User: Fold this.
Amino acid sequence: QKEVEQDPGPLSVPEGAIVSLNCTYSNSAFQYFMWYRQYSRKGPELLMYTYSSGNKEDGRFTAQVDKSSKYISLFIRDSQPSDSATYLCAPSDTGRRALTFGSGTRLQVQP
Amino acid sequence: GAVVSQHPSRVICKSGTSVKIECRSLDFQATTMFWYRQFPKQSLMLMATSNEGSKATYEQGVEKDKFLINHASLTLSTLTVTSAHPEDSSFYICSARDSQGTDIQYFGAGTRLSVL
Assistant:
């Protein structure tokens, strides 16, 4: 079993839709949860950073962590064509080690 | 957010030459930097962990003599691909850990290496 599982997509939605991106993980020691966005041929950009369980909201983005089920979600409201990218979840037990990435979900928002 | 500068963004070189890629943390100190490699439509694969003032730690299967890493200061790490061959063509990305703040890792924009 991979340490982090993520549906690779692609996920295609119309502009304005609510998008739900998800990851599952197996390591119960993970307590930091990051979501990165990667545009084609660019490095990953940090979107959301959450510690432990719960929700965190930043503008149109909401990150949700359920440690009991080892399930991580990222919601995007009012999706825009500029949100079209690959979204990578990266849980970690400590920021001091390299990140373990999911495979990334490719999102396409159609205008 | 914090900025990590990676140069060059694109390199095309002949087989057998060496290529150096720089990774700089611009507004924070990074005792640890990481080097990743990414193939098309795949996720990032860790190559090595670079610690300031000490030898890098390489992942299994990564040749340390081929991928030389130097982390001489708190803001700069370099990756040198020695005697590059076409199979080394890939997208190389560095990240830097903010060691004085939240331990969050910030990524450079990546370097696309094409070896002819």
